[in-house]
Every structure is written in C-alpha cells, then in structure tokens.
Write a structure and sequence with these properties.
Layout lengths: L1 E6 L2 E4 L4 E9 L6 E7 L6 E7 L4 E3 L7 E6 L4 E6 L8 E8 L14 E2 L3 E6 L1
Parallel strand pairs: 2-11
Antiparallel strand pairs: 1-3, 3-8, 4-5, 4-9, 5-6, 7-8, 9-10, 9-11
Length: 124
C-alpha cells in the first residue's frame, strides 16, 4: 500500500500563492502517476493536475497557466504550486497516486491512493 499525506493548505487573498505538498510512503515504487484533485462544497471532485514518472504534466483548463505540478523523486514528494489564486479555487485539495497503466491522462481517473485533504480558501 501507499500512504499519502498532504500539507500546505491555508487562507490567502485573491492573487496570492500557495504551495501544496504530498509525501508518499509505503510501496512508492508502484506509483505510475501522481495528481492533485479538489472538491468544493456542493460540487463534484475534479482533477487539477497530474504528472507521470517521466515528468509529463497535464492540467485542467482551470489550472493551466496558474498552477504547476512537480515532483521530487528522492523524497517521494510532489507539489502543486498555485499562483494568482481566485475565490473559485477555494476547495479541499487532495493528492492522489495511481498504479494502473494508462490512467495518467486528462480523464483524471484515479482510484488507488488518496490523501486526507488540505483546505485552500481564497478570499476576495
């Protein structure tokens, strides 16, 4: 199994920045894709960004140009750098890991491993 722990959420004003971190432990060698998702109150969970083992990245349209996903293999950690935050970015953000082949794409179909979530609140 893989255990994921997020950190870095918080409250910022519109236009501010935050960095989220996700630390993985356990059977990390099984991970093929790492991602970030979010869920706002009353809305469905949505994919934000993914990065595969080769470093290829995919972003949701809402994140493109403002968010950057990256990974640091040596410490089994990946990040989501969020700039120019907007109130509509407010949500519970989850990191996720996927071990199935062919799931690191724009469909954002992750089932394997999830973190507990970290809250991001952007005030206007």
């Amino acid at each position: 199994r893989v255990h994921l722990t997020e950190s870095g959420g918080g409250s910022v004003q519109t236009g501010g920045s935050l960095r989220l971190s996700c630390a993985a432990s356990g059977n990390v060698a099984s991970i093929l894709c790492r991602g970030w998702f979010r869920q706002a109150p009353g809305k469905k969970r949505e994919g934000v960004a993914v990065v595969d083992n080769a470093g290829r990245t995919i972003y949701a349209d809402s994140a493109q140009g403002r968010f950057t996903i990256s990974k640091e293999n040596a410490i089994n950690t990946w990040y989501l750098d969020m700039d120019n935050l907007k109130p509509e970015d407010s949500a519970l953000y989850y990191c996720a890991a996927e071990s199935r082949v062919g799931h690191c794409d724009r469909r954002f179909l992750f089932d394997d491993y999830w973190g507990q979530g970290t809250q991001v609140t952007v005030s206007s």
